[in-house]
Automatic annotation (TrEMBL):
Names of the cofactor(s): Zn(2+)
Residue span(s) of domain Rhodanese: 2-51
Entries under CDD domains matching the protein: QueC-like
GO MF annotation terms: ATP binding; ligase activity, forming carbon-nitrogen bonds; zinc ion binding
Function of the protein: Catalyzes the ATP-dependent conversion of 7-carboxy-7-deazaguanine (CDG) to 7-cyano-7-deazaguanine (preQ(0)).
Pathway assigned in UniProt: Purine metabolism; 7-cyano-7-deazaguanine biosynthesis
Cofactor mode of binding and number, as noted: Binds 1 zinc ion per subunit.
Official protein name in the record: 7-cyano-7-deazaguanine synthase
HAMAP family from the UniProt entry: QueC (MF_01633)
Length: 232
């Protein structure tokens, strides 16, 4: 049985997924089931702590933490491979960055759909957005549309799960603005690809995050080693 007020949120510990959780609640999903995965990423402990804090903040119906170490063993990403360096920020690049974890979202969404079907959730929320899909092929709208077809075909006939990427056409600035409206506790989120504390301020994830807050005239509440000016 599907419950219209239940949704799974892929909770990475970052600001996009935290905003997605609050957005889901604003849309009437009162019972949130948060799924967090550790896959050997550089900042996995800090990300776990932030995802756990988010579950408490939204009074989640459940918090599921899954170890997906196969992504580290497969490698191919600077987030999981010690032999690859996390690149310096280049917010204008159209190349696929070294931080891309090959086909990660298909892995994560598969688990999220299993979790949703088991718990009768009507939706799966993911915080991917337009600045993600410019570099990550598994963040494109076409990918999510295709994955929705996989969900429809691969679940029980009575199962109805909507894959929801509410920010897929939004910029990071749009997300930050919406999150501030919703009261998202951004001080309890983490984006840096390199460090648990402080955030480096110079990787792509830090750059996009800092730029968003700078464009809004707000101060990002987390601690940085450097706070370069990224906003034009």
């Amino acid at each position: 049985m599907t419950h219209d007020d239940r949704a799974v949120v892929l909770a990475s510990g970052g600001m996009d997924s935290a905003t997605a959780a609050y957005e889901a609640q604003s849309r009437g999903y009162d019972d949130l089931y948060l799924l967090h995965t550790s896959y050997g990423q550089n900042t996995e402990q800090r990300e776990y702590d932030c995802a756990r804090a988010l579950a408490d903040r939204v009074d989640a119906a459940d918090f599921c933490h899954v170890e997906t170490s196969h992504l580290q063993r497969i490698g191919g990403s600077s987030l999981t491979d010690d032999d690859m360096n996390v690149a310096e920020a280049d917010t204008e690049s159209e190349e696929i960055p070294s931080s891309y974890v090959p086909f990660r979202n298909a892995n994560l969404l598969s688990m999220a759909v299993s979790y949703a079907e088991t718990n009768g959730c009507a939706a799966v929320f993911i915080g991917a957005h337009s600045e993600d899909f410019s570099g990550y092929p598994d963040c494109r709208p076409a990918f999510f549309e295709a994955f929705q077809r996989v969900i429809d075909v691969g679940t029980k006939p009575e199962t109805s799960v909507e894959l929801t990427a509410p920010f897929v056409e939004w910029s990071k600035t749009d997300i930050a603005e919406r999150g501030l409206e919703l009261g998202v506790p951004y001080e309890e989120t983490w984006s840096c690809y390199r460090s648990d504390e402080p955030a480096c301020g110079t990787c792509d994830a830090c750059a996009f995050r800092l730029e968003a807050f700078q464009r809004l005239g707000e101060r990002d509440p987390i601690t940085y080693e450097e706070r370069p000016e990224y906003a034009e």
